[in-house]
Write a structure and sequence with these properties.
Blueprint (H helix, E strand, L loop, with lengths): L1 H26 L36 H4 L14 H15 L2 H15 L27 H14 L7 H15 L19 H4 L9 H9 L5 H8 L6 E3 L14 H11 L11 E3 L11 H7 L6 H5 L7 H9 L1 H16 L19
Antiparallel strand pairs: 1-2
Helix pairs in contact: 1-13, 3-5, 3-6, 4-6, 9-14, 11-13, 13-14
The protein binds protoporphyrin IX containing FE (HEM).
Protoporphyrin IX containing FE (HEM) binds next to helix 4, helix 9 and strand 1.
């Protein structure tokens, strides 16, 4: 019981810090509420509000460009059917192939993690992010192209950015996988620069927790966002290649280790990009909190996932999320909105084709 109280207090402090950040974002001019999904209201139940002296959270105010003009109603007049088109396409693709939901969520992360959410990951030219080693197993490009083609015929040309399409597709993919819904703020512009070496800096599963925290912090995301967004690994797959080091650590459940070794066929693991294992060994197709309970059982697939339960900065959050499922859904919506707001471009172009910059 004592432990649960400790977890709760740490979580309340972190969530409080985040609420302050969001409150600041909402009070900034030109941002149309709600940036916060309605589910956020349920985030902290009254019994969680313990009378503790809180240290003053250090707030780094979002820059004006970050907040400049993202709004859920951005395309209300210029492309009223946008969200219906995206949802219909994502649903159709995921119904045909459920693995596409996870792939689209990951594609969105890899976009926002490099140069912000500017669709730089979609550019398909020599030396682009998409051609990087770290992007080898990214999928979903064709789905985004198909959505873009339909949007270009239904709405005025070059109105809806590829970055916005990818962001909304990630939300719809989450819902299709059984996860939460949130309002997507729109108005991102597409970037013109995309460099493979920058894509290779995205975490690949063998980093330590400090490196992960720093990577997230550099993008305006905090430790709670790190733990929550890593919860995306409740669905989807990894190549055997990405877990090759995990197979020789001791911080792993023995039965699980044996099963992974069997699935990955040990022998040619170093080059194995074609063999996959589920990121969530227990409920691989369902978006749920079991990812966190797996970590408690030393059944995290990626080394970085498992480390979240060993490090004192993140383990209380893992424990709280494992024991209180609704927290995961509510905070996932909030953290995904934050991810979608990373370094958004407020000026620039809307591409005609998501794979190429405009001539
Ligand atoms: C915390 C740092 C992270 C690390 C180290 C990491 C690492 C990885 C790795 C190694 C894979 C498997 C890649 C492969 O071998 O094919 C993967 C898959 C995936 N990641 Fe992450 N990831 C991180 C954060 C995130 C975030 C923030 C999201 C989403 C918001 C995300 C969503 C996913 C999804 C959904 C998959 C499955 C993709 C599929 O099945 O196609 N990851 N991640």
């Amino acid at each position: 019981m004592k432990w649960r109280w400790c977890f709760s207090i740490v979580l309340v402090l972190l969530v409080h810090h985040m609420e302050m950040e969001l409150a600041m974002a909402l009070s900034a001019k030109d941002v149309t509420p709600p940036l916060v999904p309605t589910t956020m209201k349920k985030t902290i139940s009254p019994k969680w509000r313990v009378p503790v002296a809180r240290p003053r959270p250090k707030i780094i105010p979002p820059t004006p460009t970050e907040l400049a003009y993202l709004s859920p109603t951005h395309y209300l007049k210029s492309c009223p059917n946008l969200e219906a088109i995206i949802q219909q396409k994502v649903n159709a693709w995921v119904k045909r192939d459920y693995t596409m939901a996870a792939s689209i969520i990951r594609l969105h992360f890899h976009d926002c993690a490099v140069r912000g959410c500017d669709a730089s990951i979609l550019l398909n030219h020599a030396g682009s992010e998409r051609r990087a080693l770290a992007s080898k197993t990214l999928r979903g490009f064709e789905l985004i192209d198909e959505i873009k083609a339909e949007v270009e015929t239904s709405c005025p040309p070059k109105t809806v950015s590829c970055a916005d399409i990818l962001t909304a597709a990630a939300r719809d993919a989450t819902v299709m996988a059984g996860g939460p819904f949130w309002e997507v703020p729109f108005g991102r512009k597409d970037g013109r620069v995309s460099l493979a070496n920058e894509a290779n800096s995205v975490p690949q599963g063998h980093e330590n927790v400090t490196a992960l925290i720093e990577f997230f912090q550099a993008r305006g995301l905090n430790i709670l966002d790190l733990v929550i967004l890593s919860g995306s690994h409740t669905i989807g797959r990894s190549t055997c290649y990405s877990i090759r080091q995990r197979l020789s650590t001791d911080n792993i459940n023995l039965k699980y280790l044996n099963s992974l070794r069997r699935q990955c066929n040990n022998s040619n693991i170093n080059i194995n990009l074609n063999r996959f294992v589920d990121l969530d060994a227990t409920t691989p197709k369902t978006f749920d909190e079991i990812y966190y309970t797996n970590l408690e059982k030393k059944m995290g697939l990626l080394q970085t996932d498992q480390l979240l339960y060993s490090d004192a900065r993140t383990s209380p959050l893992v424990a709280a999320l494992a024991s209180q499922p609704s927290l995961f859904f509510n905070q996932f919506a909030v953290s995904m909105i934050k991810l979608g707001n990373v370094q958004v471009r407020t000026a620039g172009e809307v591409r005609l084709n998501c794979d190429y910059v405009n001539p």
